Backbone:
């Protein structure tokens, strides 16, 4: 490249390839790991209709991850399957909140998963995802703007679903409310990691791909505050207690999840399933 | 004419799970590009996570096996325009009903309510049991008149 002008052509991603990679990896990795965590609930959800609904949502979410990986295929020339399976822990860009286990125990051995944590994590996340998709829709990278329109259509039902659980459990009082409040505190401890846009934030915003972390968070609060007020819930301050996933910091939870996810891929990278 | 034959072939490609409805009737076909001997079929995915997409892709290619002029058939999924449930044709809605699935109701934005008639008895006394059904594009409902559970296609609108 000999052209070093500072001019930014909004439709040309080549001006800030790193920022675009980073953003796509964040979007893809977030959905990928949360869809996996959702799939671990299969057969364990509170009742059968929820089992059907949650697995459907997880399937949609994995579809979104696949689509973001496919958008990356064009930019980094690595196929989506390899992007999802072969990248080491330090290259993963998902928020740490989303990689955390569903609760104590193991899927196969005495799973004692935490439904309140799952409801809060998913509701807070899908609302943040909605805010991001709205920003991407107006963004300068056309393939991503188009993808965001498509994702938003499906997200409508996800938000409706988690909002129903969130509201009903908090209104129920008793143990349900106590556990929900505890879950809100736990999710808040790492919720900033979801809004975080990593080291390339400035470049992402300058290239017009997405709005700033601050702006996304403000919009999230605008959507959530009326609901939280009605439920008489005080939101604890958000933090990134477990580290910053956007910088490649991750926990053993992700390491374990990836080793399960990669089992088939490692046996036969060309397998189709 | 080749184009007519191509559309006929595409009409023979059905939803893998709803054998009466073709991908054209579902509104999945956006356009075709003929550049002999190459054909590109542009489809709109209904839901991004739909596992039937790969099957549909393979079935489209299979539908052109006997076309001597077309030696290369590509299927591409487009994200834009997004697929919405109002793309389902009149005939598609009829075929869905025949299969026992209520066609997607109109999306009523003000209330978020749907009005879905029972595909078996036509009653309007139906209730929504689960927004999410056996596949991403369907919901589960119940008819209070004939006491049958049934499925409906989810309304999808770009609001």
Residues:
């Amino acid at each position: 490249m000999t052209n070093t002008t500072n001019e930014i052509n909004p439709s040309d991603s080549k001006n800030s390839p790193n920022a675009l990679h980073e953003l796509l990896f964040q979007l893809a990795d977030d959905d990928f790991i949360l869809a996996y965590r959702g799939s671990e609930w299969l057969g364990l959800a509170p009742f059968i209709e929820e089992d059907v609904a949650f697995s459907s949502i997880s399937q949609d979410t994995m579809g979104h991850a696949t689509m973001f990986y496919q958008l990356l295929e064009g930019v980094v020339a690595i196929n989506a399957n390899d992007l999802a399976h072969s990248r080491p822990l330090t290259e993963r860009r998902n928020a740490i909140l989303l990689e955390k286990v569903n609760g104590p125990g193991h899927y196969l051995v005495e799973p004692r998963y935490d439904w309140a944590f799952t409801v809060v994590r998913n509701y807070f996340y899908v609302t943040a995802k909605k805010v991001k998709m709205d920003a991407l829709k107006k963004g300068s990278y056309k393939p991503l703007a188009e993808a965001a329109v498509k994702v938003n259509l499906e997200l409508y039902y996800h938000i409706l679903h988690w909002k129903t659980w969130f509201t009903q459990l908090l209104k129920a009082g008793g143990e349900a409310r106590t556990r929900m409040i505890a879950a809100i505190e736990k999710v808040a401890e790492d919720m900033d990691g979801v809004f975080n846009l990593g080291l390339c934030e400035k470049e992402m915003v300058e290239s017009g791909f997405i709005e700033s972390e601050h702006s996304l968070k403000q919009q999230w609060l605008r959507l959530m505050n009326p609901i939280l007020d009605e439920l008489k819930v005080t939101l604890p301050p958000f933090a990134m207690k477990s580290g910053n996933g956007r910088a490649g910091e991750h926990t053993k939870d992700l390491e374990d999840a990836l080793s399960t996810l990669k089992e088939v891929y490692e046996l036969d990278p060309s397998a189709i399933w | 004419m080749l184009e007519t034959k191509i559309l006929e072939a595409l009409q023979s490609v059905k939803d893998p799970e709803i054998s009466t409805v073709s991908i054209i009737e579902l509104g999945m076909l956006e356009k075709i590009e003929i550049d002999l001997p190459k054909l590109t079929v542009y489809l709109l995915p209904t839901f991004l996570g739909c596992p039937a997409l790969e099957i549909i892709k393979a079935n489209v290619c299979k539908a052109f096996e006997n076309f001597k002029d077309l030696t290369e058939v590509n299927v591409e999924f487009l994200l834009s325009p997004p697929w919405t449930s109002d793309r389902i044709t009149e005939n598609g809605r009829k075929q869905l009903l025949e299969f026992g699935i209520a066609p997607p109701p109109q999306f009523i934005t003000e209330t978020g309510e749907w009005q879905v008639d029972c595909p078996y008895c036509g009653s309007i006394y139906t209730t929504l049991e689960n927004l999410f059904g056996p596949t991403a594009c369907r919901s589960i409902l119940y008819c209070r008149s004939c006491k049958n559970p049934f499925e409906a296609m989810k309304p999808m609108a770009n609001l």
